Amino acid sequence: MTTASRPAFHPVRDIARRGWWIAPLIVTLITLPLLAYDGLLALLSPMAYDPCDSGGCPQTGQHIVLAVACLPVALLLWIGSWPAARSAGPALRSTLYLLAPAAALLSLVSFCTIPIGR
Predict the structure, then answer these.
(1) How far apart are CA 92 and CA 114, in angstroms?
(2) Quick check: is 97 in a domain?
(3) What total of structural domains would you count in the chain?
(4) Which of 63, 82, 112, 118 is deepest in the core (most CB within 10 A)?
(5) pLDDT tens per residue across span 33-90
(6) Residue 70 belongs to what domain range?
């Protein structure tokens, strides 16, 4: 076999291709526990309305809507990080890797700062 018929060895490209799954796995290990905990808090969030009067609690409602809206966004970003790891450019990959846990964390912060009864 001559060197012309054999593809050239590119250490950086070959290493990046072999370990393509490492970054999405790290994102998964961070995002999924946050989403699970957010789901538990979403199930408990209706209790924040218990001390409200008949007029409602607008601040409590805003926090819950933001937190619940972030859950599917984080889920879609997490799912999108896996196919992007193989085919997308580095800018899109790193954006998805950062935004998936950030959306789950925003949901968690919003759930944890619900003003009870306001």
Answers:
(1) 33
(2) yes
(3) 1
(4) 63
(5) 999 999 999 999 988 888 888 777 888 889 999 999 999 999 999 999 999 988 888 8
(6) 61-118
